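Posting this for the archive.
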Amino acid sequence: MNRKTQPKPSYRIKSKHPRRQRKVLYTAPAHRRRRMMTAPLSKDLQNRYGVKRLPVKLKDKVLVARGDFAYTEGEVVEVDLKRMRIHIDGVTIEKADGTERYYAVHPSKVVITDLNLKDDRRSRIIERKV
């Protein structure tokens, strides 16, 4: 296949080798990590917008679906692209010295229940996907 006719690389992992899959995840640039930080929308949001998954943004309301904090609902306080985790209001653990800190949750383990549509770009993304 000619180099000019090759399709552009996507963020999806194509290798079968776990070592290469991990390398793709850990060395991914920020614009690809953003695409990997998606979470499914709740059923009523899926019906309303016609989209199944969107990247998690600040001030989205999410419901934790798995783990120790399952069925906990809160607002996204921080999106950590470097560690590929999100911090949710109400999902905290207590440290040994008594202070509380946010427990990092992977976005695939949450369901978005309310979207932050104050950003115009996000509205255009939803329109484009429909």
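The two ends are 33 Å apart (CA to CA). Residues 49 and 127 are 8 Å apart (CA to CA).
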